[in-house]
Amino acid sequence: MNATELRERVIAAARTCGADAVRIAPADAQSWTHERLAASFARGDLQTWPYDERYAATAADPRTLLPAARSVVCIAVAYATPAEPPRPGHGRVSNYAWSSDYHRRMRALLASLAGQLEAFGATTAVACDTAPIAERAFAERAGIGWIGKHTNLIAPGLGSYVFLGEVVTSLPLEPDAPLRKTCGTCTRCVSACPTGALRGDYTIDAGRCISDLTQRRGSIPRDLRPLIGTWVWGCDLCQDACPPTNRAPRAAAAFAPLDDESRAPTLGALLRLRSGEFKRRYARTAIGWRGGALLRRNAAVALGNGLDRADVPALEEALAADPHPLVRGHAAWALGRIGSPRALARLRTRLARETDQLVLDEIRAALLSISQ
Ligand code: B12
Ligand code: SF4
Ligand code: SF4
Questions:
Q1: Domain ranges of the chain
Q2: Has residue 290 got a pLDDT over 90?
Q3: pLDDT tens digits for 131-184?
Q4: Which of 73, 212, 245, 319 pairs as cysteine with 331 (C-beta 3.0–4.6 A)?
Q5: What is the rounded end-to-end Cα distance, in angstroms, of the chain?
Q6: What is the pLDDT at residue 1?
Q7: What share of the chain is helix, strand, coil (3-state, %, to 5)?
């Protein structure tokens, strides 16, 4: 088989496995990616992630994944399905998380493709999300799309609602050319971002991104909580504002919401979600890996931002009885934000009974916010 035939067989195999776009990048280390990553980490853009100079060097060089690497087969899989307008009393879940876990589908697709490349005598390593490789940068180099000001890769005809995956391989495949496209003068995503995470120069302060805030462990900074609105997992606002993404079809049936609650969970029920029910509902989704307490914490923040006095009883129950101090603390914040006389009374009662320092600090801050 000559080089052109081999390349075509690989591309056809990727398509048969389910890739909506497939292009090839050389497996050379990318010095500009190394620099971009290192600069981003040095600015503190990804403070909640264990990324450092060493990670920057590793992620820019596919040979750290596979020493014999010659090519990176980059694939994109479209996942957009129709969204619905937010509803009072319900949280918002990002499109990427409301279906069954994309990691499983992507890994199955990549494993199948890797198996076919191995049949050509190649060695392979696969990556999707968790492997140390700068996926957007390699997809951009391969010409799958361009990096937008929202920092997501936008694939022509598919938009930015695409998952990325790679098969790094020892096969010497003819690489594709990058698209070399930019966003031009558009800045819609920058204006749509409620937290100011996007700088407009194709970089992000990820510590301000709602996607990061809703997935991180620990407390959400108080000043950012009001900006989260009713998002309880991830955020799609910058992509929903993006013209090339909006022009693309939202018809990825394989990534449709598991049910209505997966797309727009009832916040009161989410706040009461305990371990068994969490596992039953979320183990199959991309939300399952973090545990139920983070979702209850996020539900408390969303209820606080809903500013509905009818939600005070659910929040006072969480403040009094949730086993996790993180949830009790954020419930206190939410009661302070609603600020009704009943919320004030319950905060005062709990101040006398609570023993956890984090929760006590939150209660005091909430009482202060009501008095101001
Ligand atoms: C950490 C992480 C996050 C963090 C930080 C996001 C960020 N922008 O860095 C948080 C939790 C915020 C996050 C959020 C989301 N994420 Co995320 N995330 C990752 C992860 C694990 C690492 C990203 C990383 O290294 N960031 C550090 C920055 C500096 O690097 P970078 O984003 O890769 O950017 C490089 C390129 O843009 C490059 N570059 C290359 N060529 C060019 C050319 C030009 C002109 C420019 C300007 C830049 C550029 O510059 C950077 C350095 O190389 C990747 C998987 C992976 N291993 O790559 C998924 C990944 C990036 N996430 C993904 C998704 C789907 C999301 C969300 C959409 C989920 C959601 N709805 O909530 C949001 C999007 C938020 C946003 N606006 O970015 C997809 C992105 C798909 C796509 N189409 O781009 C990935 C690739 C996972 C996957 N396998 O599909 N994520
Ligand atoms: S995902 Fe949301 S918070 Fe993050 S950059 Fe986009 S609009 Fe901003
Ligand atoms: S909204 Fe505009 S600026 Fe932002 S990524 Fe899309 S095209 Fe680029």
A1: 3-80+95-169, 267-372
A2: no
A3: 999 999 999 999 999 999 999 999 999 999 999 999 999 999 999 999 999 999
A4: 319
A5: 76
A6: 79
A7: 50, 10, 40
The tens digit of pLDDT for each residue in 94-120 reads: 999 999 999 999 999 999 999 999 999
Which residues of 92-242 form beta strands (DSSP E)? Answer: 92-93, 124-127, 146-147, 153-154, 162-169, 231-233
Which atom of ligand 2 is closest in space to residue 198's alpha carbon?
A: 5
pLDDT in tens, 197-219: 999 999 999 999 999 999 999 99
| Placement of tokens 């191995």 in the chain | 118
Q: Give the Cα separation of 236 and 187 in Å (integer).
A: 16
Q: Following DSSP, what letter does each residue of 225-257 receive, concatenated?
A: GGGGTTEEE---HHHHT-HHHHHS----GGG--
State the distance from the centre of ligand 1 to the C-alpha of 136, rounded, in angstroms: 6
* Ligand 1 mutation pick, 23, 74, 136, 290, max ligand atoms within 8 A of CB: 136
| Active-site residue flag, 129 | yes
Top-tier CATH class for 3-80+95-169: alpha beta
Q: Which is the closest atom of ligand 2 to the Cα of 208? A: 3
Distance of CA 195 to the CA centre of its chain: 15
- Ligand with an atom nearest the CA of residue 136: 1
- Can you read off the two tokens belonging to residue 225? 């909580």
d(CA 126, CA 132): 11
Confidence band for 191, pLDDT divided at 50, 70 and 90: very high
Residue type, 251: A
Choosing from 129, 240, 308, 356, the catalytic residue is: 129
| Amino acid letter for position 79 | Y
Q: Supply the residue whose CA is at minimum distance from atom 21 of ligand 1.
A: 129
